[in-house]
Amino acid sequence: MASLPVYRWRLAPEGLATRRQLRAMGLRPGGQDVAAELERPRRRRGPLVAYLYRIDLARPIRPMTPAKRAALAKANAARRICPECGHDAGYRIPTSLGMCVPCTDAPAQSAA
What's the CA gap between 3 and 95, in Å, rounded? Predict the structure, then answer.
């Protein structure tokens, strides 16, 4: 089994890019295998590893379809509705709270 080439931080050759770098160029890996690894050393812990892909094999990002845009808008709207009071909070409700901030603070105020 062949292992992947490993490059140190900022020493990767031209023609390779991470997913984020591909995305900034308007590209995606497009099903290709990882071409190499990039390691960034850290103190007292293992190195950070990023996978590199070949730019020449990357494909353009798929455009957002109207149906996908509508589904995304519907999902985001559902995250704004408070399950306790049923009102639109005007922001995405944090999963840590599970309800809007006024509903979270209401029991604390009535108990005092």
Answer: 40
- Give the Cα-Cα-Cα angle 36, 39, 41 (nearest 5 degrees): 170
Overall pTM surpassing 0.70 (yes/no): no
- Could you tell me the CA-to-CA distances from 26 to 50, 56, 58, 71, 86 in Å, in that order? 19, 13, 10, 23, 39
| pLDDT, tens only, 26-62 | 999 999 999 999 999 999 999 999 999 999 999 999 9
Output the CA–CA distances (angstroms, integers) from residue 33 to 6, 8, 49, 69, in the order listed: 15, 20, 16, 29
- Tell me the residue type at 53: Y
- Map tokens 């996908």 to a residue: 68
